[in-house]
Amino acid sequence: MALDTVNIQNKITETFGNSTSNFRMQRDIFCFDVDSDKAYNLVKFLKEDADLNFHFLTDLAGIHYPDNEKSQQFAVTYQLHNWIENTRIRVKTFLDGENPELKSIVDLFQCANWMEREAWDFYGIQFDGHPQLKRILNMDEMVSHPMRKEFPMEDSGRTDKDDRFFGRTS
């Protein structure tokens, strides 16, 4: 079986039905969405299915969409690669804004360990079953997740950001 987007989509919809949606090409990568409760099983299927064989996790990233409805304020994307066919795909799952939570895939891909820790550290996305979900780049004492867009980009009270110090006058 040639691994093209039609075959990938057919295999996925056969197995996961209406849990997957929004199949599309974005910048030469085949992308689609999956319900968060099926994300773990889908990633496992993509890795273990003999025809698909997406055996390499290239990236896992968190995203914050503060303007979306509460049920879709956070997302996690998985980028997977089939080296044999040199095919890449991106899977996105949306998470609830009140309690962004998803099953960990560390047991499927060991490299997901640090990627999930980074998504938790910056966005507060909880990965259930993660072996050691703790801060990876920020201080342990931090109580916030700095990449959430609910926080201002800069402190308006800082004087070192005054335009006069940079040769700009108003």
UniProtKB/TrEMBL annotation:
Reactions catalysed: a quinone + NADH + 5 H(+)(in) = a quinol + NAD(+) + 4 H(+)(out)
Location of this chain's protein in the cell? Cell membrane
Membrane topology annotation: Peripheral membrane protein
InterPro entries noted in UniProt? NADH_DH_suC (IPR010218), NADH_quin_OxRdtase_su_C/D-like (IPR037232), NADH_UbQ_OxRdtase_30kDa_su (IPR001268), NADH_UbQ_OxRdtase_CS (IPR020396)
Quote the Pfam families the UniProt record gives: Complex1_30kDa
Alphabetical UniProt keywords:
Cell membrane, Membrane, NAD, Quinone, Translocase, Transport
Residues of the signal peptide: none
EC top class, as a word: translocase
Q: What is its EC number?
A: 7.1.1.-
Q: Where is this region: Disordered?
A: 150-170
Domain NADH:ubiquinone oxidoreductase 30kDa subunit intervals: 33-155
Function in brief? NDH-1 shuttles electrons from NADH, via FMN and iron-sulfur (Fe-S) centers, to quinones in the respiratory chain. The immediate electron acceptor for the enzyme in this species is believed to be a menaquinone. Couples the redox reaction to proton translocation (for every two electrons transferred, four hydrogen ions are translocated across the cytoplasmic membrane), and thus conserves the redox energy in a proton gradient.
Q: What's this protein's family per the entry?
A: Belongs to the complex I 30 kDa subunit family.
Assembly state and interactors? NDH-1 is composed of 14 different subunits. Subunits NuoB, C, D, E, F, and G constitute the peripheral sector of the complex.
Name the record gives this protein: NADH-quinone oxidoreductase subunit C
Point out the gene that encodes the protein: nuoC
